Amino acid sequence: MTAELRHDWTLPELRNLHATPLLELVFRAASIHRQFHNPREMQVSKLISIKTGACPEDCAYCAQSSRYSTGVDAERLMEKSKVVEIAARAKAAGVSRVCLGAAWRSVKDNDQFDRVLDMVRDVTDMGLEVCCTLGMLNEAQAKKLEAAGLYAYNHNVDSSAEFYETIITTRTYADRLNTLANVRKTSMTMCSGGIIGLGETVDDRLKMLQTLAQIQPHPESVPINILSKVDGTPLAENADVPVWDVIRMIAVTRLVMPRSDVRLTAGRVKLDPTAQALCFLAGANSIFSSETEFMLTKAVPSPSYTADQALLDAVGMVMRPPFVNPNSPRAAELAEQVGLGSLPELPVCELKRAACAVA
Ligand code: SAM
Ligand code: SF4
Question: In the CATH scheme, what is the homologous superfamily, with its name and number, of domain 11-337?
Fold first, then answer.
């Protein structure tokens, strides 16, 4: 079965896909996955909260919203030296992408944004892919991030348009799509996905994928978060997402957007290693890891670098070096430049060395 890059998925088609018997669905997703990606490679990313808490928005899931008492203390914008230090430790652990997250509604054209642009330049110079998730962006701000060399911009649509307005009232779905349109006017790659476990229906999940797949080209990276329930937020008592729903969502995302990186993001820590391995088989080829036990804030736990290295070793996967996504035009050029064989055969140390040598 050859994959095609489609932008016109219908809801009945997606329902059909989603209803495929699970292991058959995983098998189909795994077959498509290897047509576009090196099945032994996993991109490992690190999220750095460069500005934490006191966000004016009311996202019902978020530990950083000032509307809810979640115990997350507000912190000012992090010093660049501290960001570079964390990024260096992440790189040493095999991380190839660093994501700078700010609890802002939107970017403001002020010295804080200038400081973030500086962070982007310095961390990119370390040979790492840099992603920013700073809230809403206008076109000029997107261009400034592009000029600073930003590799990716994250802005999640989170769910279907209908369901979105039940979890966030301080901005609209159209606002989200507008920021994504501004990102698409640059050469930066786009990272956009959403969350399952918010109380949405399967149709909401599928409508989210339908919306994302209508973006041309597809978002290069699609995070699938599992709701991390945070005490003090309106969704703190939501039911857990059954593991089969997670695997199914990863597999359908892989089939709908075969070239994109599918990121198994928040909530992965709750999945046992076997469930994670099934998600990897179904096409999840990117994870977040951390030197601390949490992702962005202490309210959202994360697996550690050591635990993830052990998991990848156990399932026979290697960490993907930066900028060598097999689909990026740079992949062939880089492979040639360093005389890399076909990536799957190389041990992690060689991949890292080779990538650093050319970064
Ligand atoms: N303030 C930026 C924004 O809203 O776009 C960045 C927010 S956060 C770093 C990026 C994404 O993480 C959010 O858009 C949401 O999809 C996801 N997220 C945040 N809190 C979460 C939680 N408790 N559980 C699961 N996903 C979460
Ligand atoms: Fe603010 Fe982003 Fe959290 Fe929403 S998800 S409350 S915009 S930090």
Answer: Aldolase class I (3.20.20.70)
